[in-house]
Design goal:
Blueprint (H helix, E strand, L loop, with lengths): L1 H15 L8 E4 L3 H15 L5 E4 L2 H9 L13 E6 L3 E2 L5 E2 L6 H10 E9 L13 E5 L4 H12 L2 E4 L1 E2 L2 E2 L7 E6 L6 H9 L4 E4 L1 E2 L5 E6 L2 E6 L4
Parallel strand pairs: 1-2, 1-3, 3-6, 6-14
Antiparallel strand pairs: 4-5, 5-13, 7-11, 7-12, 8-11, 9-10, 14-15
Helix pairs in contact: 1-2, 2-3
Length: about 230
């Protein structure tokens, strides 16, 4: 099954890079599906395509350099033509949960800076509603994170868990920590996103609401493409 899913991810990635044109600035997502996209773009660069990338993590930046993709300085005021990234969940309105890999802050900055945001997933990432099987990541500053968690619990009426790695708190590249919120169902992602960002200490949420322009899904029957309108 794992091999099959990887093939679906790669198929979606290959379709996504068809939207990249010579001379573009491309936002490079993070994660297992985005990795296939970066490698496919590397093949295009080696074949003569001119493009520059804006990576959403050090992991992606390292892979992009290995693939020969020129990168733009992180402190630049970018004009990104297209950003391509994966997602942990996609609902019927093309809202997303992202942040399973811990890069949600950079991913949202890049997505928001792009003229077009393309999301690529395998078929297992499509869900009737966000939540349930996958927690909502929320990036918060370390100072007083326990109080921030308590406020999030009060708002969501759901359990909040500090993400750890190897027995220690996981820190993002920006030096923050991540709280994973286990919600049974998110019926109004926009309302929840706004409410969460009003809590002091919250830096960003893994809710990507109304940002998807194009959804590309790798399925057992082939690659499916769905245009969406930002609202």
């Amino acid at each position: 099954m794992a091999m099959d899913l990887d093939a679906l991810k790669r198929a979606a990635a290959l379709k996504a890079v068809e939207y990249v044109r010579d001379g573009m600035v491309v936002g490079l997502g993070t994660g297992s599906t985005a990795k296939h996209m970066v490698m496919a773009l590397g093949e295009k660069v080696r074949s003569g395509m001119q493009l520059r990338g804006v990576p959403t993590s050090q992991e992606t930046a390292t892979l992009a350099r290995e693939q020969g993709i020129p990168l733009i300085d992180a402190d630049n005021a970018w004009v990104i033509d297209v950003a391509i990234d994966g997602a942990d969940q996609v609902d019927p309105a093309f809202n997303l949960i992202k942040g399973g890999g811990g890069a949600l802050l950079k991913e949202k900055i890049v997505a928001a800076s792009a003229k077009q945001f393309i999301v690529l997933v395998d078929q297992t990432k499509r869900v009737p509603a966000l939540g349930g099987s996958f927690p909502l990541p929320i990036e918060v500053i370390p100072f007083g994170w326990g109080s921030t968690a308590r406020a999030i619990e009060g708002l969501t009426k759901s359990s909040v868990i500090l993400r750890e790695r190897n027995g220690f708190p996981f820190h993002t590249e920006a030096g923050h920590v991540i709280l994973d919120v286990h919600l049974a169902r998110i019926d109004n992602p926009r309302e929840l996103e706004i409410a969460l960002t009003l809590i002091p200490g919250v830096v960003e949420t893994g809710l990507f609401v109304g940002r998807t322009d194009l959804l590309i899904v790798g399925t057992a029957k082939g690659v499916e493409t769905y245009p969406a309108t930002r609202t």
